[in-house]
TrEMBL record, chain A:
Name of protein: Enoyl-[acyl-carrier-protein] reductase [NADH]
Domain of life the protein comes from: Bacteria
Catalytic reaction annotation: a 2,3-saturated acyl-[ACP] + NAD(+) = a (2E)-enoyl-[ACP] + NADH + H(+)
EC number(s) on file: 1.3.1.9
Binding-site residues for substrate, renumbered to this chain: A98
Originating organism: Streptomyces piniterrae
Automatic annotation (TrEMBL), chain B:
Gene3D superfamilies, A to Z: ACP-like
Keywords from the named record: Phosphopantetheine, Phosphoprotein
Protein name: Acyl carrier protein
Database matches in Pfam families: PP-binding
Ranges for domain Carrier: 6-80
SUPFAM superfamilies xref list: ACP-like (SSF47336)
Entries under InterPro entries matching the protein: ACP-like_sf, PP-bd_ACP, Ppantetheine_attach_site
Domain of life: Bacteria
Phosphoprotein as UniProt keyword: yes
Length: 259, 80
């Protein structure tokens, strides 16, 4: 029996087969979970990639269109989910976006409009998604897991996305405080740099990846999203029943090594 | 796939037209998807993924960076 047997998990951000989100959905299915996906901005791409999950090309995996900055879609989400399942046991927030002007060394000149857009999509959306899904986690609580990149330090060229991730870390702690009484846990997985399409849009990615290959005591493969995905699945399971507001580093150990 | 047959060529062109929502009149083999058509990087990933499904082949996702127009897609496919 898998560690997610009988659990109903909503996974956002499945856009490519190399992504952490895809591997969370894959491992969660292997561990017995029933998976629902949200899609944005290319629903047809998510539907195509969903057919590569263990459930296979013939499974009618629910794929719900969801732009987490769209208040109407957020309000409709619980009903869209109820068309498929009566409740949720877990939610995976794998969402982050920033205009190119907010990254890549333009820190001092990026406009509030662009920075605000990055924070809306990457930080505030954790709260928005959680609030939309809370009514579905009334019975027996649940687990919300988000994807982080260590925001305790400044990184080359990551700029306002780094600020958005720092906000995400704080947002997860406050969410943990507010939804804890309902039995809902909120945790983040801070993965090392992964060569996903999301990362390819981040200038300076390879400079940061070099730091990992030099410093990680356990070593680090930028091509392997499985360790981060496994941590997400563990946090979605019943095996962290008293852990919330936490950041689990899945980075080969880099965050504890000074130099 | 050493040889790109006319069937494959037509199939790939149709995929690109569908994903980018353009017609043959908008796109030559050298028209740049991003700079000239305004495509985003996920559209290129969708083209790559759809070609994989349609032709039953696997293409390394890193190749998406090379796939800037139809001509370079055919180059990638010839090596796949």
């Amino acid at each position: 029996m898998g560690i997610l047997e009988g659990k109903r998990i909503l996974v956002t951000g499945v856009l490519t087969q190399n992504s952490i989100a895809f591997h969370v959905a894959k491992i969660a299915q292997e561990e017995g979970a029933q998976i629902l996906l949200t899609a944005y901005p290319r629903r047809t791409l998510t539907e195509r990639i969903a057919k590569r999950l263990p459930s296979g090309p013939d499974a009618s995996l629910p794929v719900i269109e969801l732009d987490v900055t769209n208040a109407t879609q957020l309000a409709e989400l619980p009903d869209r989910i109820r068309e498929h399942v009566s409740g949720l046991d877990g939610v995976v927030h794998a969402i982050g976006a920033a205009p190119q002007t907010a990254l890549g060394g333009n820190f001092l000149n990026a406009s509030w409009e662009d920075v605000g857009s990055a924070i809306h999509a990457s930080t505030y959306s954790l709260k928005s998604l959680a609030v939309s899904c809370l009514p579905l986690m009334k019975d027996g609580g649940g687990s919300i897991v988000g994807l982080d990149f260590d925001a305790s330090q400044a990184w080359p060229l990551y700029d306002w996305m780094g600020v958005a991730k720092a906000g995400l870390e704080s947002c997860a702690r406050y969410l943990a405080k507010y939804v804890g009484p309902q039995g809902v846990r909120v945790n983040l997985v801070a993965a090392g740099p992964l060569d996903t399409p999301a990362a390819q849009g981040i200038p300076g990615f390879h400079d940061v990846a070099d730091v990992w290959s030099e410093r990680a005591p356990l070593g680090w493969k930028t091509s392997d999203p499985v360790p981060a995905a496994k941590a997400c699945v563990a946090l979605l399971s019943d095996w962290f029943p008293a852990t919330t507001g936490e950041i689990v580093h899945v980075d080969g150990g880099v965050n504890v090594i000074g130099a | 796939m050493a040889e790109i047959t006319d069937d494959v060529r037509e199939n790939v062109q149709k995929i690109v037209y569908d994903v980018l929502e353009v017609g043959p009149e908008d796109l030559t083999e050298t028209t740049l998807f991003v700079d000239e058509i305004g495509a985003d990087s996920l559209a290129i990933i969708e083209i790559l993924t759809t070609i994989e499904d349609s032709l039953g082949i696997a293409i390394d996702q890193a190749e998406a960076k090379r796939m800037v127009n139809l001509a370079t897609i055919f180059e990638v496919l010839a090596e796949a």
